[in-house]
């Protein structure tokens, strides 16, 4: 296992473990690719079945550890995906409720505008009626005052 295909696999694995910048996904993927590349060259003569390269206990344990970590990450990603889906569903329901509420408010404002316009028209009619009443009262009261003054002047003469 040491110098198969000119690659020192054990040194590569130790380098991966020392290098903190390589994440668990990359380590596992890298280890599996090396394992399958090397095992592909160890074939029986009839080439019907692949005999994997034997791993040391340490490498096997590391591979199992990375597999468990990978499955833990996949489970976490699935949980986050489910939570995000639930959250988006609740946001959609909330948005639907808010749209319905906004439609009701808009309808009330439109009805209020119509009522305001009707009220404005009614106020214009009342203003015209009141204007005629004021003009009539002013003319009538001036006639009465004129008659009273005329009677006083006639009485004094």
Can you describe this structure?
The protein has 157 residues and is mainly α. It is built from three helices and no strands. The chain is rod-shaped, with a radius of gyration of 48 Å.
Short description:
The protein is mainly alpha-helical and 157 residues long.
Shape: rod-shaped
Average pLDDT metric = 78
Q: Which structural class matches the secondary elements?
A: mainly alpha
Please summarize the sheet with the most strands.
none
Q: Low-confidence segments, ≥5 residues, pLDDT <50? A: 1-6
Quaternary structure: single chain
Number of helices: 3
- How do the SSEs run, as a string of H and E? HHH
What's the end-to-end separation, in Å?
149 Å
Question: For the CA atoms, what is the radius of gyration?
Answer: 48 Å
User: What portion of the residues fall into strands of 2 or more residues?
Assistant: under 5%
Count the strands?
A: 0
Question: Into which percent range does the helicity of residues fall?
Answer: over 70%
